[in-house]
Design goal:
With 159 residues, the protein is mainly α. It has a single domain, classed as dinb family like domain (Four Helix Bundle (Hemerythrin (Met), subunit A)), CATH 1.20.120. The protein has five helices and two strands. A two-stranded antiparallel ribbon has the order 1-2. The model has no long low-confidence stretch (mean pLDDT 95).
């Protein structure tokens, strides 16, 4: 299971390790098909990068006692999740296109920013409720989700 502090450290280490790997990719590797049918390698990286600003503020707000929806978002669990999931692939592609040649730098800046979001978390924050579009989840569940995203999408990138 692991403590919140241990999971924060794992997210930090794994994100940095993936960033180091991404620096070794040849330019042509970024546009190859990933193991995820909808995305090229660069789109997977854009998805991981974009999640920083989707997850981080929600975790910080939840740990601080505010698990409500951010401005402009529907209440947790009340949006059209099927539509959101269908749009997810295109959101990453659009984000990647908007970044152009700055994708790797933005990934690395984002992972450092995410580390900063998580830096103040303590084990006492484990069960605090946080906003997620699919429904209210705990700080610990958010951390588990990020760890899972890193594992799955690193595999997508390396395959």
């Amino acid at each position: 299971m692991g403590s919140v502090v241990d999971k924060v450290q794992l997210v930090k280490v794994e994100s940095a390790r993936i960033g180091k790997y991404l620096k070794t990719l040849k330019p042509e590797a970024w546009s190859t098909q990933s193991a995820c049918d909808a995305w090229q390698v660069q789109d997977v990286v854009a998805h991981l990068t974009g999640a920083v600003d989707r997850f981080g503020p929600n975790i910080v707000r939840g740990a601080g006692g505010d698990g409500s929806a951010p401005e402009g978002m529907p209440p947790a669990g009340e949006g059209d999740m099927a539509a959101r999931l269908r749009a997810n692939a295109q959101v990453a592609i659009d984000f990647r296109e908007s970044l152009g040649s700055k994708l790797l730098a933005t990934y690395n800046e984002g992972r450092v920013r995410f580390d900063e979001f998580l830096a103040g978390l303590q084990d006492a924050d484990r069960d605090k409720p946080c906003y997620h579009a699919a429904g209210t989840i705990s700080v610990e569940t958010y951390l588990n989700l990020r760890i899972t995203e890193l594992i799955v999408h690193e595999w997508d990138i390396r395959s």
